[in-house]
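Deliverable D2.4 — example input (structure tokens):
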């Protein structure tokens, strides 16, 4: 059967008259009658009970009609659906992100995208940059919010745009400030205040750019960082700080992560952390193009 036959069936079912149905369809009655008979032959049962004076739906025809109407409505909607898919107003956007972005660019970006493209399903996956980059290269995600290498050197298939640049601040046990273990001056830690302090940090293997930024801050003061704990989730790092195990250098936006027993302190001459969006240059997925337009990104 084909869509044309289904439309023939509906026309006859709604008029219960082959002549009027043929007129509605803009065709003559004989080919309409033949079309219905072919459909009935394919189904193996009559759709209409015919007499010389009347036509009525058979039990099968009466029960099948709602399903046929639904199917035709779906067919009629296909061109609109195709246009919405083409223009990125429906479909799926797969977006990965580093945990630090959850407190800075991610909420606003996702909110603006959802408001602009309410028909798109947004699939979010949290992952470190070292996991995201090969996934993007392999086409497993449409885009990723990453911390780029210090020289922004990404694999050739990927394009990149900076989204935010923010200073690092010290996250420290609140008691360390109260008992003077950290010499805060006018709300700021001087450059050498953290020298020798136990540090909690991302492992370099999973966040080399962030790791090097933090350890480079200590090296600039003439002493290597004393790393006592490592964790790959920013929430875990802050929990370890809350437990009094050490201090951490975190993006200023982490102030939004309030945790009992943790204080956030500005650094003098702080290191600056960059976060941005990466995607495959050759990915023409309409939902991705909508995201890139939203952030003003160009290949």
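Example output (designed residues):
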């Amino acid at each position: 059967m084909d869509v044309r036959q289904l439309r023939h069936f509906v026309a006859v079912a709604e008029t219960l008259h082959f002549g009027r149905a043929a007129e509605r369809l803009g065709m003559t009655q004989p080919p309409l009658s033949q079309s219905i008979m072919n459909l009935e032959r394919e189904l193996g049962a009559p759709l209409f009970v015919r007499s010389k004076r009347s036509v009525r739906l058979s039990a099968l025809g009466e029960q099948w009609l709602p399903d046929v109407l639904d199917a035709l409505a779906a067919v009629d909607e296909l061109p609109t659906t195709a246009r919405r898919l083409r223009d990125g107003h429906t479909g799926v956007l797969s977006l990965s992100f580093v945990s630090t972005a959850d407190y800075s660019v991610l909420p606003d970006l996702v909110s603006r995208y959802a408001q602009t493209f309410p028909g798109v399903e947004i699939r979010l996956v949290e992952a470190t940059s070292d996991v995201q980059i090969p996934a993007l290269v392999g086409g497993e995600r449409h885009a990723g919010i990453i911390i780029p290498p210090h020289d922004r050197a990404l694999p050739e298939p990927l394009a990149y745009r900076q989204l935010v640049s923010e200073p690092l601040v010290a996250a420290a046990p609140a008691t360390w400030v109260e008992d003077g273990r950290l010499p805060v001056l006018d709300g700021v830690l001087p450059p050498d205040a953290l020298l020798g302090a136990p540090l909690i940090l991302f492992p370099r293997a999973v966040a080399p750019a962030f790791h090097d930024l933090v350890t480079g801050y200590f090296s600039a003061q003439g002493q290597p960082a004393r790393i006592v704990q490592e964790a790959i989730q920013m929430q875990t790092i802050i929990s370890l700080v809350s437990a009094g195990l050490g201090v951490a250098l975190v993006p200023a936006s982490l102030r939004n992560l309030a945790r009992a027993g943790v204080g956030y302190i500005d650094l003098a001459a702080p290191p600056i952390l960059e976060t941005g969006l990466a995607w495959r240059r050759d990915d023409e997925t309409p939902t991705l193009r909508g995201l890139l337009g939203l952030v003003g990104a160009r290949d």
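The mean pLDDT is 93.
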